[in-house]
Amino acid sequence: MMKKIIYIWTILVASSILVSCQKELSDINKNPNAAESPQPDYLLTSVIKSAADNYWGSTANYSASQLFIQQWARIQYTDVDRYVFSNASFSSFWATVYANNITDLNTIIDLGEAQGNPNYAGVAHILRAWDFQLLTDAFGDVPYSQAGNIDQYPNPVYDKQQDVYHGILEELDLALTTLTEGSAPISGDAIYKGSIGNWKKFANSLKLRIALRISDREPELSKQIVAQVLASPAGLISNNAENAKVTYEASPNWNPVAAIFSTRQDSRISKTVVDRLYDLNDPRLPVYAELPKDTTKYVGVPNGLTTGDAANLGLSKTSRPGGYFTAAEAPAVILTYAEVLFLRAEAAARGLSNEDAGDFYNKAIAASFNQYGIASQTVINDYLAQSSVKYNPANYKRSIGDQKWIALFGQGLEAFAEWRRLDYPQLQPAAAGVLNGKIPVRFIYPGTEQTLNSKSYQDAVNVQGTDNLLTHLWFDRY
Fold first, then answer.
1. Domain with CATH 1.25.40.390 in the chain
2. 64-93: per-residue pLDDT in tens?
């Protein structure tokens, strides 16, 4: 299925890459060699890979959010690990979502409706919801209601983060009512291979994620959403086989982490993770890290060292991320059974449901172990029996935050959002950081927005606060 990607670029036409183009230019600049009627299956494969690459790749993940929450660290070119960023640092992440993904997903929705196949539209709405969730989690206020319609809105307004989350929830509800099992099959689905039932579970699981994301701000709405998803006949992701993920192939359709490690050695696993997993005797350590060539123990790199101090540690004496994450066919994990269980545990702890928080917490850890092939119930029980692991109802944010951070290893953007929301684990800022002893809590808007969409950009800054790494977003209340 993923091999279709190499043909995608010859058939895309409706999806303009240049968000700054005016209608006249988009009408004139048509590729005479491109098909006038792109097929939704080819577009779907393309946009799924683009979204997965964007989520799992460099700009937003292992060169930013994974450094902030200390899953990975830099051993070369350490500026980003010291929080040295500019207004160009996150441009490719932003542009990929808006110019590629949202534009193509809007086209898939139109094509699905025109061709009488609403399931394409339903899947596209779910992927739109996920893309916008990534954007607003990272930047805060972002264009949503006017995004992806260049002809009508060449300079889209920025919606408040609260409104973006509300829009995402509405879009997921629309998807759930649009998707129909047993009819109108879809192709090009690199996540669930056309299983509409699994797409519905993914949609409900995303709703649950958003319910907890807004829970410090809108607890009553959160409670309503939790009740909806728990009562939904479509269900939630209920085992690791239903995890939302993209499994890559050999080059050129390989995992972006594998691609970077094929030519560079900038990154290592963070000392914070290694030390924590050693303290817990956590069996995921050999999955998350490789043994260095010159030692018999896993060795992490402290975050935020100067280039000289980091280089002194030695490439052969420090641990790369494990092969699960660096192999060519390693999956880009989007949302897992373990995360769903952690969300249910937290919902119960907050009084948003009548479920047993401790029980779901234990099940979440077991699901994370199983995800990585650790199936021994004895091993799991011994791990759960540790005093430092046992669920603490008096401080559920610490219990869930610490363990969710471990379980979300590799998913930098999601781990970054949950760390800001739960305030655990308690991390020390970069050793040679440039933010006066603080850790970033958002991304900086791309500089192109200041020139191409200046009024909307300035309006957003006036409402949200200074456009820097330390401005707290609406969901990050405490």
1. 2-25+36-249+441-464
2. 999 999 999 999 999 999 999 999 999 999
In whole angstroms, give the CA distance from residue 347 to residue 355. Answer: 8
Which amino acid makes up residue 10? T
> Hey, CA dihedral for 114, 145, 206, 419, is it positive or negative?
positive
Element (H, E) at 200: helix 196-213
Tell me: the pLDDT tens digits for 148-191?
Answer: 888 899 999 999 999 999 999 999 999 999 999 988 899 999 99
Which stretch of DSSP H or E encloses residue 333?
A: strand 331-335
3-state secondary structure of 465: coil
Distance CA 14, CA 17 (A): 10
Domain 2-25+36-249+441-464 CATH class label: mainly alpha
Residue 189 amino acid letter: D
| Nearest partner of 41 among 66, 67, 7, judged by Cα | 7
| 363-421 pLDDT tens trace | 999 999 999 999 999 999 999 999 999 999 999 999 999 999 999 999 999 999 999 99
CA proximity to 346, closest of 386, 308, 298, 402: 402
Give tens-digit pLDDT for 399-414: 999 999 999 999 999 9
Cβ atoms of residues 455 and 155 within 8 Å: yes
Residue labelled with tokens 């050793």: 431
Whole-model pTM? Answer: 0.92
Phi, psi of 334, deg, nearest 5: -110, -50
Q: Which tokens sit at 29?
A: 């600049």
* Cα atoms found within 13 Å of the Cα of residue 367, Cβ hemisphere only: 26
Element (H, E) at 377: helix 377-384
Residue position matching structure tokens 């192109």: 448
> Is the pLDDT reported for residue 8 higher than 80?
no
